[in-house]
Amino acid sequence: MTSPNNFPLLDAAGTRRRFVAGLALSGLGLPLARAADPLVIAQVAPFSGPQAVTGRAVHAGAKLHFEAVNARGGIKGRPIKFVTRDDAQKADQTIKLVREVIAQEAPIALLGTVGTTNLEALAKYGVLVQQRVAMMGAVSGASSIARAQGMHVVKASYHDEVARLFRNLSTMGVQRVGLVNQDDGLGQDVLVGAEAAARQFGIQLVANATYARNTTAVGPAVAQMVKAQPQAVFLGATTAAGIEFVKQYRAAGGAGAMLYGMSIIDTDALRKALGDDGARGYAFSVVLPLPSDQGRAVVRDYQALRNAAKDPDLSARSIEGFVAARALTQVIEGLGNPTAASVATALNAAKAVDVGGYTLDFSLGDQTASRYVDFAMFGAGGRIVQ
Fold first, then answer.
1. Domain spans in the chain, listed from the N-terminal domain onward
2. Closest CA to 370 of 123, 158, 56, 165
3. Of 135, 105, 144, whose CA–CA distance to 344 is shortest?
4. What UniProt keywords are attached to this protein's entry (predicted)?
5. What is the pTM of this model?
6. pLDDT tens column, 49-87
């Protein structure tokens, strides 16, 4: 039997179930039951320029988790669509592209925008509040970002980092410390934290040298530190500038001082640039679980996926994106019908998000979701000693 349009009808036993599919494929405009709409998550970050290494690393870590979620069927049958825009870490572009991606893609959340100045600009103009879209894993430990409405940071603050470092240095008898920091909101926040910690732990800041944001123009800072001869130099710097400082400082004869880098400096990139011998003795803050911390499920899961993926953008900074993505999906999984507004509300109330042995509290409102800070150092052969 056929229909007036010469398409086979279902028989009485219902055995020819392809009728509706045939109509849809024929282009007659009779719709199939549509596949589940994706849940869009967007990242506006630097994928070019001096800070591209961080934007790409955070993206690669988040992508690693989202692909694993999609491989097991998505969230309640809905796949995650992860979209990006490149702001080259220029604050005006961050604002423009965040507004653009929200209008074009209607994401239920943002993830992983990089840079204190960029995030402060979003907060200043109320972009996230106006659009009722939250950002998970904002890549900054500045106090201004910890307090910003709609932004959630998955690691300890810069003030936590510097306070822990200065406390440790004071127990080692180190009193003369030099600070190198970026000339922007990031650097200013680090300086405020360093001055407070110095007063608390009896540390003398013998020199404070800055370099221009989004550059590696650290020559004057190197000269200033060589002249000041501190016992330790603390680098409140980004990856490319931090690497360049270490190269130039050691070449200029500053090998006597201990070098401590903030967690924002990608240690994989630093070791690759300096070599195992050049990296030896460089110490750094640890604010997220290290790959060697196999006692945490999040590390085991991350390492297994990373080894299988072989993505060249995966680096020491990538676990930050992975943790942010995992925390975000856990919050979304608890919602019936996720929307940008419902995700934002749920994140503000999320008190104990355990991503696998690393627990986050997003409900505090005036501080980052974690206070965990430790230290590690490159030893012989590029081995990390904690």
1. 1-33, 39-156+295-360, 158-262
2. 158
3. 135
4. Amino-acid transport, Signal, Transport
5. 0.85
6. 988 999 999 999 999 999 999 999 999 999 999 999 999
